[in-house]
Amino acid sequence: METIAEKKLYEGMFLVDSGKAASDWDGVIAAINKVLDRADAEIVSMRKWDDRRLAYDIRRTSRGTYMLCYFKAEGRKIQGIEKDVQLSENIIRVLILSTEQMTDRKSV
Fold it and tell me: Over its length of 108 residues, how does the chain's per-residue pLDDT go in tens digits?
């Protein structure tokens, strides 16, 4: 008998290279979608949050674009999302938090 796990709402902050975001915006969005699709996640909302100078260089990158994404996924799939981000050439970092509601704040 197969157990069906309930999908919970998660908030993901994806950090991408600002240079790649400026030159290939569709490619950046596609990379995030690909990572989430591999985990069978259902994207609820995705938007550009901000573009900032990083406190220190990451992968020889000094500026980053932050993408805020809300998605529904099974809890056991989060580790796979984080692993896929580590292997991605387009996504530098990700922070995923479990949430119960989406924030309604506008971009700064």
Answer: 566 778 899 999 999 999 999 999 999 999 999 999 999 999 999 999 999 999 999 888 999 999 999 999 999 999 999 999 999 988 999 999 998 876 665 443
Contact 35, 91 (CB under 8 A): yes
Question: Rounded to an integer, what distance in angstroms lies between the CA atom of residue 91 and that of residue 66?
Answer: 10
Q: Residue 18, Cα to own-chain centre: how many angstroms? A: 15
- Looking at the chain, how many residues does it have? 108
Residue type, 100: E
Taking a C-beta distance cutoff of 8 angstroms, is the pair 66, 37 a contact? no
What pTM does this model have? 0.85
